[in-house]
UniProtKB/TrEMBL annotation:
Signal peptide: none annotated. This is Adenine DNA glycosylase. The lineage of its organism: Bacteria, Pseudomonadati, Bacteroidota, Flavobacteriia, Flavobacteriales. CDD domains: ENDO3c, NUDIX_DNA_Glycosylase_C-MutY. Belongs to the Nth/MutY family. Keywords: 4Fe-4S, DNA damage, DNA repair, Glycosidase, Hydrolase, Iron, Iron-sulfur, Metal-binding. Binds 1 [4Fe-4S] cluster. Pfam families: HHH (PF00633), HhH-GPD (PF00730), NUDIX_4 (PF14815). Its cofactor is [4Fe-4S] cluster. It is an enzyme of class 3 (hydrolase). Its EC number is 3.2.2.31. Residues 35-186 form the HhH-GPD domain. It catalyses: Hydrolyzes free adenine bases from 7,8-dihydro-8-oxoguanine:adenine mismatched double-stranded DNA, leaving an apurinic site. Adenine glycosylase active on G-A mispairs. MutY also corrects error-prone DNA synthesis past GO lesions which are due to the oxidatively damaged form of guanine: 7,8-dihydro-8-oxoguanine (8-oxo-dGTP).
Amino acid sequence: MDFHNILIKWYLQNKRDLPWRKTVNPYQIWLSEIMLQQTRVAQGMPYFFSFTKEFPTVKDLADAPEEKVLKLWQGLGYYSRARNLHKTAQYISNDLNGVFPDSYKELLKLKGVGEYTAAAIASFSYNESVPVVDGNVFRVLSRYFDIESDIALPATKKEFTALAQELMPKDNPAIFNQAIMEFGALQCVPKSPNCSNCDFNDSCLALQKGKVNQLPVKSKKVKVTNRYFNYLILEDVEGNTLIQKRSEKGIWHNLYEFPLLETQSIVDFDVVSKKAKEEIFPSYTIIGIEDCAESTVVHKLSHQHLHIQFWKIKVKEKIENGVDSEKLKTFPFPIVIYNFIEKQEINC
């Protein structure tokens, strides 16, 4: 079929120069695929270089403390990816003697590795004939073949996987997978694709039928929850502050934060002052509370919008286990808190 020939020709002429395309090392390919989940290439690239420099082998990553891994991941978001990455590195290093599984079926058994990532590693590292199906592939195939199946449904994933398998040249699955993903990322983009300058504009059914902006079909809507965080930044006479580790499951697990007062809505000075004095810090003598109003942000996650306020609270006593400003920067924080610290708005 002409589809894969045209696609691969386009790819060879237009592909981006990306470091993980210059290797068949499964460690580096796995690293890049985990990083690029929910992350744009431009954002993920510096992290890939940082990780491969700091942890050149899977054993180096396995032997690193989790806090170091989280610190290096800081700002990339979806921190469960980093925790799973670290645990999987330990499993490969300790249980598999540092040798990556060499098949799609075995790769699927790794923690944090789903069908897409397993297919990517299997085809790019071992040239196994297994198709990758991500958002880009859904978009390209649904438009080219005018497929209106709802991509939010599991059955549709099977439908597109079977179609991609049929289109894939069995002698070079790796380049086909790279090509179709790249085509979706650069040419057949979600909004306002340049169809007039597309190698498939004479055969794309969605273009012929005027349905490009209607495909792919996705019915499921993400329900967004609003949460209200008030971070209380204690400061004693020596300029030290207090932080805590998020041990509960959920967002930012094992990252650090300032003492947190979560409320049902945005609250004012009186509410924070009363809670701080009577419930959160009853053992300290509070001599001043200040709202760092210019630091108020709405931090948007995939399923949650966090309305965050920072409050500076001066106390008379010396803080037990207090952290100074220099040491503070060495801990892994959610990026919204890290940015606050970096801007020195702790001294607002």
